[in-house]
Amino acid sequence: MGTISVYLHILTHLIFTTAFEDGPVGILYFINEEVKLMSAAISAIHRAVQLTSRRWLNLQEYQSKKLMSDNGVRVQRFFVADTANEALEAAKRLNAKEIVLKAQILAGGRGKGVFNSGLKGGVHLTKDPNVVGQLAKQMIGYNLATKQTPKEGVKVNKVMVAEALDISRETYLAILMDRSCNGPVLVGSPQGGVDIEEVAASNPELIFKEQIDIFEGIKDSQAQRMAENLGFVGPLKSQAADQITKLYNLFLKIDATQVEVNPFGETPEGQVVCFDAKINFDDNAEFRQKDIFAMDDKSENEPIENEAAKYDLKYIGLDGNIACFVNGAGLAMATCDIIFLNGGKPANFLDLGGGVKEAQVYQAFKLLTADPKVEAILVNIFGGIVNCAIIANGITKACRELELKVPLVVRLEGTNVQEAQKILSNSGLPITSAVDLEDAAKKAVASVAKK
Ligand code: GDP
Ligand code: MN
């Protein structure tokens, strides 16, 4: 789920359920707090616009290339294989002068990656189909680590076996939904193939942008200008412009948030070809892109979200370093908001919901601390139906059994809070108590800054 939709989802949830969830016991107490939460919620939505989501649907290269070729974009002929034998057969069937074998993972930088089988490089060129088989054997079932993966890499389940083409020039082309432009923008560089971030840093004048009016669509003059900026000349220029136009139309049609082609290349025979493809999709468009979302390869999904669901916990990953453990969607959003206001960034939030059991609290801590990004935990629980003493017992149990290594800031309020505070302070554990939300956020942010 995208961050914005998370916030919207939470806001809806807040409006329709929070007041009722906490029942008649908490409701009077809530009214004042609720007003504060609402304003926090709205500013959180505004801020969410600046947040980058980690959760746009991402497809494998072979899936993206299928969409591209179905829409008139030029890619190489290819097959997909999930065993070394299939890869060998595919290589023979291609009957090509040269073959390129590519590990399929949802991360870039494969060319320079390393497998835990010892094999170097997630992209290999060879003329011999037998070599394809041998290489595939060292790819499938092994982890490939690249600059964009976690250290241990990502397991390769499939390889792409494609007809290799000679490349005379590698350029870079991307189409993004860009917030600062309030719409789509083409980004290109004649210096492709390599790390585009490096080009942007060392030669920013070699990065070209073309802002597109989403209502008018891409103009031919814009596509031509980008093609020229990418260094395509003669007949190649109009061919590149045509490919750029088709890529833009595809981008729009499939509700993509990003289409990145690196290299967007040129062959000595005079063809413009998309040698690589990375497409991200707007998760809010799932309802009208059912075929695309059905391709979602869940094997690389965050296992933590699936794990949380098992215990009836809602986990949402964000990209900061403070884990938030809360009950109720409104409080989740307000907690995120107040962390931002105090200069911090939430790593995630885990919503405990109503009717809490001690074991769930334990599981929640286990999940939160499993995320290596987490440098502090902020517990912000408002006890309506939820009994704070149960939470406190769950927290102390989890702290002891999991040997918690990161600072823990706890703010509890509501039913049975005195008892809860006693449990925490008598535990002898290094738990920082906070008196209110603001205090909790300040303490959590400070504990991270100290490290
Ligand atoms: P990435 O490393 O994950 O971005 O994977 P790419 O698909 O971009 O492949 C890495 C590099 O391999 C490219 O930048 C090209 O230089 C090279 N490459 C990929 N396909 C071909 C091909 O068909 N022919 C040639 N000559 N080089 C290729
Ligand atoms: Mn690439």
TrEMBL record:
The record marks 98, 166 as: Important for substrate specificity. Its cofactor is Mg(2+). Residues 326-445 form the ATP-citrate synthase/succinyl-CoA ligase C-terminal domain. Residues 1-19 form the signal peptide. It is found in: Mitochondrion. Pathway: Carbohydrate metabolism; tricarboxylic acid cycle; succinate from succinyl-CoA (ligase route): step 1/1. One of its GO terms (molecular function) is ATP binding. It catalyses: GTP + succinate + CoA = succinyl-CoA + GDP + phosphate. InterPro entries: ATP-grasp_succ-CoA_synth-type, ATP_grasp_subdomain_1, Succ-CoA_synthase_bsu_CS, SUCC_ACL_C, Succ_CoA_betaG_euk, Succ_CoA_ligase-like_bsu, Succinyl-CoA_synth-like. Substrate binds at residues 327, 384-386. Its EC number is 6.2.1.4. GO terms for biological process: succinyl-CoA metabolic process; tricarboxylic acid cycle. It is an enzyme of class 6 (ligase). Keywords: GTP-binding, Ligase, Magnesium, Metal-binding, Mitochondrion, Nucleotide-binding, Signal, Tricarboxylic acid cycle. Mg(2+) binds at residues 262, 276. GO terms for cellular component: mitochondrion; succinate-CoA ligase complex. Binds 1 Mg(2+) ion per subunit. GTP binds at residues 76, 109-111, 165. Residues 58-264 form the ATP-grasp fold succinyl-CoA synthetase-type domain. GTP-specific succinyl-CoA synthetase functions in the citric acid cycle (TCA), coupling the hydrolysis of succinyl-CoA to the synthesis of GTP and thus represents the only step of substrate-level phosphorylation in the TCA. The beta subunit provides nucleotide specificity of the enzyme and binds the substrate succinate, while the binding sites for coenzyme A and phosphate are found in the alpha subunit. Heterodimer of an alpha and a beta subunit. The beta subunit determines specificity for GTP. Belongs to the succinate/malate CoA ligase beta subunit family. GTP-specific subunit beta subfamily. NCBIfam families: PRK00696.1, sucCoAbeta. This is Succinate--CoA ligase [GDP-forming] subunit beta, mitochondrial.
